[in-house]
Amino acid sequence: MKYISTRGGNEELSAAEAIKCGLAKNGGLFVPQELPKLTLEELSAWQKLDYRQRAADLLRRFLTDYSQSEIEDCVNAAYSESKFSDPKIAPLRSLDAKRHVLELWHGPTSAFKDMALQVLPRLMVTALAKTKEKAQVAILVATSGDTGKAALEGFCDVAQTQVIVFYPKDGVSEIQRRQMVTQAGENVAVVAVEGNFDDAQSGVKTIFADEAFNSLLEDSEIRLSSANSINWGRLAPQIVYYFSSYIDLVASGAIKLGDKVNFVVPTGNFGNILAGYYALRMGLPVGRLICAANRNNVLSDFIQSGRYDRKREFHKTISPSMDILISSNLERMLYYLVQGEREKVAEWMACLAKDGCYEIGAQLHEVLQEIFWSGWVDDDETQRMIKEVYQERGYLLDPHTAVAWQVGEKYRLQGDDAPQIILSTASPFKFNDSVLEALEGEKRSGEDEFALLKALAEKSGWKMPQKLAELETLPLRHQKTCAVSEMRACVQQILVK
Ligand SMILES: *Cc1c(COP(=O)(O)O)cnc(C)c1O
Q1: Contact assessment for residue 309 and residue 301, using Cβ atoms and an 8 Å cutoff
Q2: Whose CA is nearest to atom 8 of ligand 1?
Q3: pLDDT of residue 326
Q4: Distance, CA 271 to ligand 1 centroid (Å)?
Q5: How many helical (H) and strand (E) elements, i.e. helices and strands, does the chain have?
Q6: Does the C-beta of 408 come closer than 6 Å to ligand 1?
Q7: Which regions of the chain are under pLDDT 50?
Q8: Assuming Cys at both sites, which of 104, 186, 318, 429 could form a disulfide with 399, CB separation 3.0 to 4.6 Å?
Q9: What atom in ligand 1 is closest to the CA of residue 400?
């Protein structure tokens, strides 16, 4: 199967090449030329498979230039029991007949990014070998908090790679910051950017597009690549848990094979929910994909109006991993909306870059609305949900999952009472201060992150992730800060010795 750019052109790459490059030469994202199917019969057979086997069965359909054993080696190492604290890897918790929470945060960094970023480095290294690449691959990451640590965990000390993570200086939680600045490894660097996530992401994109800089790096046998969800090797593994949770729900007896379910997805960069769209197109019985947003509601507005407009105030919220105004992966969705008419995608992306907005027109908007529904909630509502769900059901939601829960409830009020699978994207311990504040009704003052972790564990009776507790005693290794305009110089300084 070949991969092409969402923005047109003749570039046609194998999966290995697409994963190695990350981004197409013309700035577009790679999409597979055809979409494989997974029939209900094939899916039914997944009931006997564990998560690793399920992942291998799905990935082989997209990564046709990888051998079966290459794929198995990648997923077995990624979803090992030494990395994930739950033997089911992505367990589904049914809170009642209609509400099922898919816990995607049992990996090493306590957020769902591990589901993809434990696999991507392995797919990447395999790709380097397959394409006989001699250069070092430098992975540049812009993070709203969770991707950075997950990429550092995934790529740390992986041969032939280096990772540089840029995070918004005041835009991540203290736990997230600690996770990153304590990262060990010979091939890692972490830099705070004076700006928000969109600034950091645009900075990274500018570096990717800078031809002169890229050829300068080439002289030192370095090529840039990405671990952001624009990389196909990160998106594909996310399709697995849509199918996997569905078949778990069938196995539990809550639904029959073929019944439709709705997925509720706390959304930022549109990567997670896009994987759900791929699952739908591959044959999964999905009713609606429900896109949940926080106060940075650019996606809700787009889904409700057909007009994408990033020209708005940026808000810092208690669900910081969704504080995003430019959702990169939406570009892939546009490609499917226009049915491959790639000039249109290129046009809209040019408008977005130039004017900060674009409009898809009434007809396509209607198509979009048949698949997606979207709503958003503010911080107060998010905190109320955390408290309510904990009090009524004894289940602890992190702020991102709470946003999803509440938007799922809003959707139910529209009259669709089909079972919902709510994607839970972070452990509540990762955002312990907001969660505690929600439970107790006020912020604790004068207690540091680690006191809060313990307080949350005591209050809830939930077990805190070991890796988070350990952060307290780890040395701070990365102190670098830079302005957005200095990002390129910073990359050069780190990479070119
Ligand atoms: C990254 C992230 C999201 C948003 O996922 P996208 O794929 O960017 O839409 C939501 N919640 C958490 C906790 C995250 O880390």
Answers
A1: yes
A2: 269
A3: 85
A4: 8
A5: 22, 16
A6: no
A7: none
A8: 318
A9: 11
Q: How far is the CA of 370 from the centre of ligand 1 (A)?
A: 23
With a 6 A CB cut-off, is 113 part of the ligand 1 pocket?
A: yes
pLDDT tens-digit series, residues 146-187: 899 999 999 999 999 999 999 999 888 888 999 999 999 999
The token pair that represents 7 in the structure block: 């923005």
Does ligand 1 have an atom closer than 6 angstroms to the CB of 322?
yes
pLDDT of residue 86: 96
Q: Which of 113, 130, 205, 344 is catalytic?
A: 113
d(CA 339, CA 483): 40
- Could you tell me which residues come within 8 angstroms of residue 470 by beta carbon, excluding any fewer than 6 positions away? none
> Considering the entire predicted model, what is its pTM?
0.95
Cα distances from 131 to residues 163, 251, 474, in angstroms, run: 20, 41, 38
What kind and span of H or E run contains 90? none
Going by C-alpha positions, the residue among 235, 143, 124 that lies closest to residue 190 is: 143
How would DSSP label each residue in 163-182? EEEEEETTSS-HHHHHHHHT
Render pLDDT for 60-96 as a digit per residue (tens, 0 to 9): 999 999 999 999 999 999 999 999 999 999 999 999 9
- Gap from CA of 280 to ligand 1 centroid (Å): 20
The answer, yes or no, to whether any atom of ligand 1 lies below 6 A from the CB of 270, is yes
Rg from Cα positions in the chain: 21
Tokens found for residue 343: 């000039």
Written as six digits, the tokens of 51 are 């998560």
Nearest to 137 by CA among 261, 220, 78: 220
CA separation for the pair 496, 492 (Å, rounded):
5
Ligand 1 neighbour 426 (Cβ under 6 A): yes
Whether 113 is a known active-site residue: answer yes
d(CA 488, ligand 1 centre) in Å: 26
Task: Determine the 3-state secondary structure of 481 from DSSP.
Answer: strand
Q: Is 317 in the pocket of ligand 1 (CB under 6 A)?
A: no
